[in-house]
Specification:
Layout: H1 2-23, H2 26-30, E1 33-40, E2 46-47, H3 50-62, E3 67-79, E4 82-94, E5 102-116, E6 119-136
Parallel strand pairs: 1-6
Antiparallel strand pairs: 1-2, 3-4, 4-5, 5-6
Length: 141
């Protein structure tokens, strides 16, 4: 039963990240990563510790409206205290102060996680460049 319990716990970490971002709950998002995590978000940047990553997430979400990050199709492999996970990202972001008002992006996350005293945490995350990105303009005034 332990491997299945681990898979569920890992999926929870990944889903908790999405909920935390949408709620702008940076303390919650912080619980998803190890302190010395590596995060490569492609064109957006790369970080080698949790603090600057969380600061960046806060900064880029500060001037936009509601968001909905859906992370699905988790493929998880556990090997002792290390795991890998690949997931799809489907995100909607309300961006009222741009030439468009809704941004829809689809991408993939590739994570390496480690078991800690506090549970599973993301130690390494790579965001595969956007598979596609669409901007929508409001048709009403």
């Amino acid at each position: 039963m332990q491997p299945w319990h681990d898979v569920l716990a890992i999926r929870d970490v990944i889903d908790r990240y999405a909920v935390g971002v949408d709620r702008r709950d940076w303390d919650l998002v912080s619980t998803c990563f190890t302190p010395n995590c590596h995060a490569d978000y492609g064109r957006s940047g790369e970080w080698t510790t949790r603090g600057p990553l969380i600061d960046w997430l806060d900064q880029i979400h500060r001037d936009i409206g509601p968001t909905q990050h859906r992370i699905t199709n988790h493929q998880v492999k556990v090997d002792g205290d290390i795991a890998t996970a690949s997931s799809y990202l489907d995100a909607l972001l309300q961006v009222e102060h741009h030439e468009y008002d809704l941004l829809h992006v689809v991408a993939s996350y590739h994570d390496q996680l480690v078991r800690s005293d506090d549970g599973w945490r993301i130690a390494d995350r790579r965001l595969e460049d956007f598979l596609w990105r669409r901007q929508h303009r409001s048709t009403h005034a």
